[in-house]
Design brief:
This protein is α+β, with helices and mostly antiparallel strands and 111 residues long. The chain has helices at 24-47, 87-95; strands at 16-21, 64-65, 84-85, 99-104.
Length: 111
C-alpha cells in the first residue's frame, strides 16, 4: 500500500482459505477451454517471441519457460536459450481444474 506521501507500508492481514469442488464437469471443461486458448498463444510466443510484448502475451507467458521482458518497453528480451512450453505448469493446473479457492480476510463465520 502506498500513501499520499509515497511511503510504502506492508500490512499483514490474517486470511482464511476455503477450497471446494463444484459442478466438476462444467468447471473442468471451462478451465480446459481457457487454458487451451492460452496454450495456442504460448506455442506461438515460444516460436515467434519478436511478435509479442508483455501486454500482448498476457495469459500465455506463464506457460513459457525463460521468457524475460524489458521493464521499460515491455518487449521480450532476447532469450538466453530456446523458449519452451512449461509442461509441469500445465499438468499442475489441470490437476486443480475442478476446484475453486477463495481467500478472505474475514475470520469469523457468518450465518
Amino acid at each position: 500500500m502506498t500513501t499520499g506521501d509515497n511511503i510504502r507500508y506492508t500490512i499483514n492481514t490474517p486470511r482464511k482459505t476455503a477450497m471446494y469442488s463444484a459442478c466438476q464437469y462444467v468447471t473442468a471443461k471451462r478451465a480446459k477451454a481457457e487454458r487451451e486458448a492460452a496454450l495456442v498463444k504460448a506455442k506461438d510466443l515460444a516460436s515467434h517471441p519478436c511478435n509479442y510484448t508483455r501486454a500482448t502475451s498476457y495469459g500465455a507467458a506463464k506457460y513459457v519457460k525463460k521468457v524475460d521482458f524489458d521493464k521499460e518497453t515491455g518487449e521480450i528480451l532476447t532469450a538466453s536459450s530456446v523458449l519452451k512450453i512449461d509442461e509441469a505448469m500445465i499438468r499442475e493446473e489441470e490437476a486443480l481444474d475442478v476446484y475453486y479457492v477463495l481467500l478472505t480476510s474475514e475470520m469469523e463465520e457468518s450465518h
